[in-house]
């Protein structure tokens, strides 16, 4: 009876059995650019983790961009020439906790329309 009551209190008040879920978000996730030019954009990064987590660029996993356990609206300026992937890692174990990808879309010029004359000799 006492055990049941203790477990109920632990669950109710967020004890060790109530684990926080991990959430990680980068917005916007798409960058649109013209051909032959890098895509410059400002993104907003936010996450909530039950432990300390660090943001890393997948191309440079040894360099931490920012570390925190809860982070709301961290501004990040990017220059992309290809798709980019960012990860949240545990700084102690270097284990990847979550990933987000930013897709690069290249806006192509529409093809020129062929003009037809309204009159013809043939």
TrEMBL record:
Domain of life according to the entry: Bacteria
Pfam families cross-referenced by the UniProt entry: DUF3019
InterPro entries registered for this protein in UniProt: DUF3019
Protein known as: DUF3019 domain-containing protein
Source organism of this protein record: Shewanella cyperi
Origin organism lineage: Bacteria, Pseudomonadati, Pseudomonadota, Gammaproteobacteria, Alteromonadales
């Amino acid at each position: 009876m006492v055990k049941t009551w203790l477990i109920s209190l632990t669950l109710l008040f967020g004890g060790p059995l109530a684990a926080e879920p991990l959430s990680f978000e980068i917005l916007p996730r798409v960058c649109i650019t013209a051909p032959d030019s890098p895509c410059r954009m400002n993104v907003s990064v936010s996450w909530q983790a039950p432990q300390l987590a660090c943001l890393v660029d997948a191309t440079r996993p040894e360099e931490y961009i920012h570390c925190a356990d809860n982070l709301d609206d961290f501004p990040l300026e990017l220059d992309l020439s290809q798709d980019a992937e960012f990860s949240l890692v545990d700084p102690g174990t270097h284990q990847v906790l979550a990933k987000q990808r930013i897709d690069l879309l290249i806006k192509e010029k529409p093809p020129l329309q062929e003009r037809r004359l309204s009159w013809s000799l043939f």
